What we know:
Blueprint lengths: L1 H40 L2 H35 L22 H4 L2 H13 L8 H11 L9 E8 L7 E9 L4 E6 L5 H7 L26 H26 L10 E8 L1 H19 L9 E8 L7 H10 L6 E6 L10 H4 L6 E5 L13 H36 L6 H33 L7 H29 L1
Parallel strand pairs: 3-4, 4-5, 5-6, 6-7
Antiparallel strand pairs: 1-2, 2-3
Helix pairs in contact: 2-11, 4-11, 7-8, 12-13
Amino acid sequence: MLFLSLDWVKLMLNLLRFSCFVFAVCLLFVLACSSEENNKNLTPKNRVNSEQYSNFNETKSKAKKELAAYKSEYSKIDSLINDKYSGFNNHYRISKGENSFFTRLDYKQVQFYADLSDLIYVKKYKEFDDVVRELELKLKDDNYKEYELLSTLERNFGKNSKELSAIFLYNESINHLIVVFKGTVTMADWLKNISFKNYSGLDPSESLKAIDGSSLNIHEGFARAYIEGLSSAFLYKFDDFFINRYTVPADSTLPLRITTTGHSLGGALALILANDLPRLLIGVGKFFDDSQVLIETITFGAPRVYDAQSSRIVEQALAGAHNIIRIVNEGDPVPDMPSKTLLGGADIGTPIYIPYSGFVKNPLQHMMGKYAKESAHVFKKIKQDALKAREVKDKIIELKAELGDKSENLFDKVDEREKLKMLLDKNKSRLMLTRRVLKMVRDEHFHLPLSDLKEFEREEKLLIENNKKLLSELGRLSN
């Protein structure tokens, strides 16, 4: 009876195992059929979603790899920020959305300005009228044919005969006015005519002051060359152009560009004029911002004109260092004059360094022909590097946004700071201009309708408030 019971239990267990096996097989079969049926019934929309999900993962993986590659490239760029010959140097950092002379300029235009600064050294004839005729013939070359020679300036530089000092060119089709200054012909002339002590003489028209009318420390030789040799003659011809010739283009998106350029002492005068232009424009009734008038300067082998504090004020007046391009041959002794330590000279704007392999500065490196030969290709490489750095930054920002990566890059704060500085420089430039207008009205140099005067006063207050906010934001980012 016991054995019968055991056999019975074994039989039941075997039946249970067999039932479980059959059940499992049936379940798998049902699931397989169900999956196949689901696939058959999958809508096109669901199929697309499935494919999109797969593509998203693939895209995300690709973006991560791309981001890693760009970050690696940026680390190489970052290692060159102190290399003065590299376009990755801090001097050439381009802010997001920046519109400056540096961003607008290309190497062909650099060559154009260098050629003009070389062209003005007409040495073949002694009589002034012959010099002008020779210059007019040269300007008929294809490189300059779009530009009309408006007028010339002459000065007496301690000699009995007149000497060509500057030329005015205008291209109406692109609304571009160029003033090219001539430097002294020889190093002996340069040293003889320049004094490096700060100017303390009369400045009746306030042509040497900052836009807002505040004083600048400017070296005497350059100040005298500008006031005595140029200011009155230039003012007459400048006024004549704007009053009798210039008309605002029908295309409102085409601002007037005024470029000042020159070599050696001519470069120093070009910088002084750039600082003086807002005053001159106000004098002919041109109240402007950078959507109407762009003031830009490019110099070759120019000496230092201002001390450190005044250099910063002039940079702000011209809406930032990138609106002043200073080409410097490392072998040229003139751009190092006056000395920073002994005489308080200071560099200004954005320097473009031409490498020099010698151990001692050589006056022959100061020749304009040397600058005309080398400036453009040096600028080309620097600009390519600067644009590459901006491109890499923008790509990193774009990829991080795509991946939802909110981690901070090393350059994030720097980038934001540079953008705020650019806005601050523009605001300060506009504030200086507004204050100059108000000062000239109060000093009765010209009259403004009461409504316009009130508008300028309101703008002054608004700009002061905006500058405070920008400074506060810069302070926050610096912490």
